[in-house]
Amino acid sequence: MKILIVAETDGGRVSEKTLPAIAFAQQQSPNNFAILAIGENLQCIETLTGYGAQAVLTVSHPALTKPLAERYAPVIAHHAHQLGADAIVATTTTFSRDVLARTAGLLDAPMLSDIIALESANGKLVAKRPIYSANLIGTFEVEGSPVVMTVRGPAWGKPTPTSAESPVQSAEAPPDIPQRAEWLGLQGGSGGRPDLTQARVVVSGGRPLKDPETFEKYIGGLADALGGAVGATRAAVDSGIAPNELQVGQTGKTVAPELYIAVAVSGSVQHLAGMKDSKVIVAINTDPEAPIFQVADYGLVADLYQVLPELTELVKNSRA
Amino acid sequence: MKILVSVKRVPDPYAKITPSATGADINRDGLQMAVNPFDEIALEEAIRLKEAGKASEVVAVSIGGAESQEQLRTALAMGADRAILVQTDALLDAPSVAKILAAVYQREQPQLVLMGKQAIDMDENQVGQMLAAQLHLPQATFASKITLENGSAIVERETDNGIETIKTPLPAVITADLRLNEPRYVALTGIVRARSKPLETLTPADLGVQVQTRMRLVKVEAPPARKAGKRVSDVHELVRLLREEARVI
Ligand SMILES: Cc1cc2nc3c(=O)[nH]c(=O)nc-3n(C[C@H](O)[C@H](O)[C@H](O)COP(=O)(O)OP(=O)(O)OC[C@H]3O[C@@H](n4cnc5c(N)ncnc54)[C@H](O)[C@@H]3O)c2cc1C
Ligand SMILES: Nc1ncnc2c1ncn2[C@@H]1O[C@H](COP(=O)(O)O)[C@@H](O)[C@H]1O
Hints:
The structure holds two protein chains of two kinds.
Chain A: E1 3-6, H1 19-28, E2 33-38, E3 55-59, H2 69-83, E4 87-91, H3 94-107, E5 111-115, E6 117-121, E7 124-131, E8 136-142, E9 147-151, H4 153-156, E10 168-171, E11 182-187, E12 201-205, H5 212-226, E13 229-232, H6 234-238, E14 259-263, H7 269-272, E15 280-285, E16 298-301, H8 304-319
Parallel strand pairs in A: 1-2, 1-4, 2-3, 3-10, 4-9, 5-9, 12-13, 12-14, 14-15, 15-16
Antiparallel strand pairs in A: 6-7, 7-8
Helix pairs in contact in A: 2-3, 5-8
Chain B: E1 2-6, E2 9-11, E3 33-35, H1 37-51, E4 57-64, H2 69-78, E5 82-87, H3 94-108, E6 112-116, H4 127-135, E7 139-149, E8 152-159, E9 162-169, E10 172-176, H5 188-194, E11 199-202, E12 215-221, E13 230-232, H6 235-244
Parallel strand pairs in B: 1-4, 1-6, 4-5, 5-11, 6-10, 7-10
Antiparallel strand pairs in B: 2-3, 7-8, 8-9
Adenosine monophosphate binds next to helix 1, strand 4, helix 3, strand 6 and helix 4 of chain B.
């Protein structure tokens, strides 16, 4: 199977979010994968070169400074075709959902979203992926080539470094990239904390955190003491307590850190869909019946306002 | 301006979903069905655009068995002007659904296609992007705000990095995220009025589409359950266990 990995780029730099897709390729087809990175004057290309890819192709063009699907998809389709790729793969993110599904449309290729396992049997690919808000796992059979796939980051982990460096080759953009949609701006950012999907520790807060200041003080404070990232429920985001990009869950991000601390989070199926693969889950909630306790390794029935300051202090002291 | 909105019949988002006895599908006995929540949001947006005088007609389309009429009636009750059911009992993959929607688009020639970003049964998040690619239309996925002006849409998109703003000329395909709006409750008068609104039934063949499904669901299983955990009595015990037992801090 020849795999073409599409690196996540924001036009300016290559993102580490690409790494699980590389880990996938190492497992599925260690000697036969290439990586495509799109954007003008890309930085951090070395993020991609240490894992045994046959080549890292870079496509640079003034129309490609921002990741607009309408512009990126034809570039990917073009190179997938040139390479004769059997699989076009990226880590599941909003970037890849947007761009790769459009690529699949251009290639008339079937697509597997967010897969957690893959094998081939009788000339067919057999993939597992979460369905029904990750309440169930579905096994899918797919025929044809190429197949487009996004792979669920936490299921594939980090790639193994190799001694040889992959060659970086600049590649052409196809002519006539459509340029109807234009990029106007982006608001957001992790404010110096680790990226939510990459962090070793995530502290998430729910609706009872009242307002942005309270949320930042309690949830941000504990996250900083642990060197972790901050997450939130949809209810917290919808009430304006936490910014949108912190949402964890079915319609937010999927995380699987070593430690996930859920503070005043009820544990709806939609929230669990995004975090139940975390290694260790801690729940702090006033309601002993809250569903979050069903997935928590350690549960503390308590009022967050009473226990969080002390917990934050203890963590600071134990790490000092 | 005409808006086409796609509507999928899916299990109620709050229903408990379990594997069937054979493990080849889910247990559908007595399962409550609903309009896909993201499609409800797309519909709400279309209806608001009509109410604001920015659109003249809202057409809802669903692909599926005869029972999908129920969801189209809901769409009509919410405020869609007419509905189209492309009736088929075939199991369709996303490229096939996109092909059928593309054929409906060609027939209807709307200026805007609004759809959910994802159907909450298979959680694929593909059809809108595939449809836009097939029709060579620009796309704006995961919309949390849409402003129409002078033949263009300015769309705020929910991305992993924050809210991105893009501008696209129309026609375009826009997919709705949860925060775009709060769908209205369907009023009784709407339900009554919906009965007299047109609901047309077509087949894929009527639209000249031959569907070929390359992907199929063969097995459904519960994910591995997490072991029940411990209750701790206070933060001191918690920190000690996280350090000594779990070794994560
Ligand atoms: C289609 C769809 C998609 C969705 N996607 C997502 C998603 O991606 N992510 C997501 O999170 N949600 C999602 N939701 C929403 C989800 O169903 C829940 O509404 C939401 O997760 C609840 O958030 P919450 O736990 O903050 O709030 P609540 O349900 O209000 O729970 C608050 C919890 O805090 C506890 N509490 C109250 N006061 C205190 C205190 N002082 N100290 C400690 N504990 C306290 C309460 O006992 C309760 O358990 C989605 C819903 C739908 C329909
Ligand atoms: N059978 C269908 N009938 C109508 N619309 C559909 C159907 N399947 C998918 N869609 C639309 O495509 C969107 C994305 O679905 P999906 O790519 O399957 O997650 C949904 O929100 C629907 O608007």
